[in-house]
Amino acid sequence: MSAPNSAPNSAYSELHAHFGRVAALANAVGILQWDNDTMMPRGAAGQRAESMALLHVLRHGMMTDPRIGDWLAEAEEDASLGAWEKANLREVRRVWTIETAVPPDLVEASSRAISACEMTWRQARADADFKALLPSLTEVLKLQRAIGAAKGEKLGLSAYDALLNDYEPGGRSTAIDALFDDLADFLPGLTAEVLAVQARRPADPPLTGPFPVAAQRALGVEMMGVLGYDFERGRLDVSTHPFCGGADNDVRITTRYDEDDFTSALMGVIHETGHALYEQGRPQAQLGQPVSLARGMSIHESQSLLMEMQACRSREFLRFAAPVMRKAMGGSGQAWEAEALWRRYTEVERGFIRVDADEITYPAHVILRYRLEKALIADAMPLAELPLAWNAGMRDLLGVTPPNDRLGCLQDVHWPSGGWGYFPTYTLGAMTAAQLFDAACRANTDILPAIGRGDFAPLVNWLRSNIHIYGSFYETNDLLIHATGRPLDASVFKAHLRRRYIEEI
């Protein structure tokens, strides 16, 4: 990492060195977590939980070091600091304020509860048995409420908004309520309209498998390379729930495979590659400092959804990708033609699984989870009633009822892993992705034609120049204004959906 502009023994230099050590510890945690989720033997779970708990306590101790407050007070008076250093001080103060709100014993208890709950969730999900998860998830929820209350007291926020703030700095549930209520009104009518249009067209022949995992992996790796993923700084593995993790300059992604359907795993790889490109593109000169980190989860989700939904479900991309897919899977016939693949990848269906949902129904999955987790954090609903409330919400928002808990409230790892307040960022990210892709294509009219040639450099270069290299230099809204000329505008997302699913059919 680069040395700060200030004098070697200045308060800013002390902060810079201190947070560099925090980052090194966070990198170690990231690799251990990746191993936990991909290849750690089940018998190691207990010892791993102990190790992770200790590392989280050590990191929390470093983040709450009493010297930080003094260093901040002095450094914020240093007129010699440049723009990046000032932005870094803003981010240091933000994370320090949040961390100092939570006592170490609560951090340790939460880490232990999460490690145990994640392991229990894996088996409970396989068995479709929510009751088996209930005791450990109850403990995680209790501790998340306590963490939210502690942070909320320090920040002047509700417990839920305090948890949301960890993932979406500055985000507030009142604004999200209005946005999601608007989407909940808009999407059902659009869904019905699209389903009616799609029902009138002839059915395409199926893509018949089996599709060997080795072939699917090879195809995924090839497409990662097309998108610009740097394999010298990452790898692809398998996990129960696809994710992007690892450490600085060691950005690892995972997917899961189904030999009856290669299309889902491929888009999962593309989605996580979008996340990874953001991580690999963060400002190297500031690496290890809070200002170098990705700017909140709505921006992070925008990078994955931009690649998966905006770019790689376009006709341009599928014209390029169709022969590549056909060759990789040994396919032939009409089902492998570009237009048939485009229809498959833009098919709208009311389904049970969020990660398999299309662009139009996906927000309903998020709205359901957002409303439920708000109620649970507020203790407005008993956790034991979650399966019933989940199924009722699915019926109301999507018109389907899951037949079991595996296809219902057990499908996501977020709550067992302590990710309360995370879910709304998915749909905020979808809206942001639409706005960024629209701005990129307006700025460079060759982006879509280049994608049709399998050349993602123009798009990735625009994202590097306008999003990735800034890390957390800008606040979220300021970053979006910098990149697109305006704050988040839902009309761009709505227009994109109507154009793709109604006007361009």
TrEMBL record:
One of its GO terms (molecular function) is metal ion binding. Keywords: Carboxypeptidase, Hydrolase, Metal-binding, Metalloprotease, Protease, Zinc. It catalyses: Release of a C-terminal amino acid with broad specificity, except for -Pro. Belongs to the peptidase M32 family. InterPro entries: Peptidase_M32_Taq. Pfam families: Peptidase_M32. Zn(2+) binds at H271, H275, E301. This is Metal-dependent carboxypeptidase. GO terms for biological process: proteolysis. Broad specificity carboxypetidase that releases amino acids sequentially from the C-terminus, including neutral, aromatic, polar and basic residues. It comes from Chelatococcus asaccharovorans. It comes from the Bacteria. The keyword Acetylation does not apply. Its EC number is 3.4.17.19. CDD domains: M32_Taq. Binds 1 zinc ion per subunit. The lineage of its organism: Bacteria, Pseudomonadati, Pseudomonadota, Alphaproteobacteria, Hyphomicrobiales. The active site is at E272 (proton donor/acceptor). The keyword Protease applies. Its cofactor is Zn(2+).
